[in-house]
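Summary of Year 1 activities. Much of the first year was spent building the evaluation harness for sequence design. The harness presents a backbone, in tokenized form, and records the residue chosen at every position. We chose the following record to illustrate the format because it has been used consistently in internal testing since the harness was completed.
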């Protein structure tokens, strides 16, 4: 299972919610960054069971979604959980122990759920986006604002419900 950072405008642009057959809708092109339970994540989070490790990967993808929002706009974080073959990803640890890159396109029919901020989180998400650059430069107050998003749990949606989020 991988966790793909996304945005609602990005999903609309990809054709999610359109009349296209889900096997034709590409939600992530080859080379996209995602998060997964990797050996590095297992070492970083030694005492976690698989549910805790997947949650850690999901929260790492939510942070990556925040970075996407800074580039493309939108006001809520989105993470797509997708099932892909093990050989469809390569580890890409860098500064994130959960980071992987997808080798093949990920299509909507591989997505098993979406995790999206509640609309009430939009103000805090917007504030966090504004603080991203400062946080990456080491500003503790900016980092605190971003960590404050942990107070907003991502809501779970079934795949067939994603189209309703885009209206």
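For this record, the design step produced the sequence shown next.
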């Amino acid at each position: 299972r991988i966790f793909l950072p996304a945005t609602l405008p990005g999903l609309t642009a990809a054709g999610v919610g359109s009349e296209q057959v889900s096997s034709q809708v590409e939600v992530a092109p080859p080379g996209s960054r995602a998060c997964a339970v990797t050996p590095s994540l297992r070492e970083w989070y030694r005492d976690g069971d698989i549910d805790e490790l997947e949650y850690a990967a999901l929260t790492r993808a939510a942070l990556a979604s925040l970075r996407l929002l800074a580039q493309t706009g939108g006001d809520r974080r989105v993470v797509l959980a997708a099932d892909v073959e093990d050989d469809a990803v390569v580890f890409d640890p860098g500064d994130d122990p959960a980071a992987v890159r997808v080798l093949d396109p990920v299509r909507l029919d591989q997505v098993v759920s979406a995790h999206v901020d509640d609309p009430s989180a939009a103000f805090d998400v917007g504030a966090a986006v504004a603080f991203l650059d400062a946080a990456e430069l080491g500003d503790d107050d900016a980092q605190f604002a971003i960590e404050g998003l942990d107070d907003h749990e991502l809501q779970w949606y079934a795949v067939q419900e994603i189209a309703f989020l885009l209206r």
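The chain has a mean pLDDT of 91. Quantitative recovery figures across the full test set are reported in Table 2.
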